[in-house]
Amino acid sequence: MKLVHLSDLHIGKNVNGYAMLEDQKAIFTQILTIIQDEAPEAVLLCGDIYDKTTPSAEAMALFDWFLTELAGDGRTVLLISGNHDSAERLTVGARLMEKSRVYMAPVYTGALQQITLQDQFGPVTFTLLPFLRPAVVRAAWPDETVESTSDAVRVALSHCPPDEPGGRQVLLCHQFVSGASSCDSEEKHIGGLEAVETDLFQPFDYVALGHLHNPQKVGRETVRYCGTPLKYSFSEAHAQKSVTVVTLEEKGKTQIRTVPLHPRYDMRRLKGSFAELMEQASDDYVQLTLTDEIEIPNAYNRLREKYAHIMILEYDNTRTRAQADFSHVTSEREKSELELFGELFYQQNGRAMSESQQAYMDALLRELKEGEES
Fold this sequence. Notes:
Blueprint: E1 2-6, E2 14-15, E3 18-19, H1 21-38, E4 42-46, H2 57-70, E5 76-80, H3 87-90, H4 94-97, E6 102-104, E7 113-119, E8 122-129, H5 134-140, H6 149-158, E9 168-174, E10 176-177, E11 195-196, E12 206-210, E13 216-218, E14 220-225, E15 242-248, E16 254-260, E17 267-272, H7 274-278, E18 282-290, H8 299-304, E19 307-315, H9 318-322, H10 327-334, H11 337-349, H12 355-373
């Protein structure tokens, strides 16, 4: 059985002031061509479909088009929500969509949806595990010990029906897995309470992960993040984005390969003097670093003649290096609101927030953000 593993579409995302909807439609069109060529039996969408819990009408229209195309030719589509999604909003109409073989993980109340498909080697059971917070699992299973995200995933999986003997098992999961590497465009975390241990995935023949933006295996080849289809930060400038294609054969035999993706505009970092950069040109999204000791008048507008999509323009010279003592100010800006509040809490109380306090503050911050966006 052939599968295509996708995640972290972040539809509607803005990067450094640039709306990415057109770039996303272009890369989705490319993905659809790959899917037509590969002809998989199922497509797995592993969370963070949208960039915000309250997506714009334009973002929703783009996903409606993409999902309709994915489900063409009788193809099965399996989908879970991520931490950027509202599970309640994302799953509207889910039961109706099942008639078109589109299966969306419902809002978690204690049971995980499982879908079984058949091929020449027998059944393949897909377990749909949406993004979970410990408080949600504690509410569903009050008699269980749930102190961390790893506990939450363990408890949620423990209440699934037993495996069919000899059957193959695939898990869709949107979490931060211990040992994986992250990049600048992802949501930051406090401590290790949010990390899920890989030994929880031992029963599964393939684990399709979402959440982290770099494609990578975690622990073993068959536990994988497929990464985002587009680059969303300059920390990914040298990354190769791709579609992950998984072929399940008989039990214990899984083939994995990637098909490269090519965006209409790449992300590049360029560094040099103003004169050196003016000798080059690029239509890509660029971060330009000027090394001139004297600030160049009207540098941005003049460089725009050569670089249509300047996302960041900065200097690296004696003056900026002398300001390195104030670099902590920049690092503070890069931290999430939850991290900053956690540090304030520690300074005032001499201890870190408990997991329940973190969950409460995270929910409160999200509610405030949604209020600002509405």
